[in-house]
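INFO  loader      accepted 1 record
INFO  loader      residues=259
INFO  predictor   begin
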Amino acid sequence: MPSEHAAGLSLDGLLESVIDIAKAADNAILAIYRRSFEVTYKDDASPLTEADLVSHQVIMDGLAKLEPAFPILSEEGAKIPWAERQQWRTFWLVDPIDGTKDFVNRSGEFTVNIALVHEGAPVLGVVTAPALDEIFAGIVGQGAWKIDTAGRRAIGVVEPRKPLRVVASKNHLNDETRAYIDQLGDHVLVQAGSSLKFCRIAEGAADHYPRLGPTCEWDIGAAQAVLEAAGGQVTTLEGAPMVYGKESVLNPYFVAKGR
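INFO  predictor   done
INFO  writer      dumping tokens
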């Protein structure tokens, strides 16, 4: 995909701006992570902390300053009516903290997810793991990169290993997912939290990630962009493309793969 995307903007320059915004969110999150904090719960019983809200505000403020301006859909933002959202051709998709349970448990495996969605598909993604000092970024059709204490380098998926390295959720490994994994044959489990599961495939540390459980668009959009930029793919279990900007933000069951 050329640098000038159909949306009429330079994705190269935009990616660097989004990385900077994500880093600012990381710093705000870590300031809270390193001290005591309260945990409340949403109507769906998922946890919510001050860090989720602070990260949301930092990202909203940062994205609002970018040109051209696109609407923003954030997990922690106000609910936007479908009548308005269905008009969006290009929009930002944000999860201020994916894996709040990992944040609360201080496992370190929570992420910040920022994606640019165009015509129903994520085309740019930034995933940061603040507590692990890792950043993953990608532009579909151009490449993916990892930034950590060793610097910045290009990453890519690899040929599947034997036994197959299947990445699984620490918090959501249900019976249906176990049954799916068992039918894959000889395999080893690679444990990872939040959207890092996609990123481990993108950097060649895992091969396969099935998710037979509920997720929302903001949970996976940025990481899907990173994985596809690294040469992988994310589809429904039937092999159909994942679609973004739907009336319901819930995703179908899916599988993420490397090469």
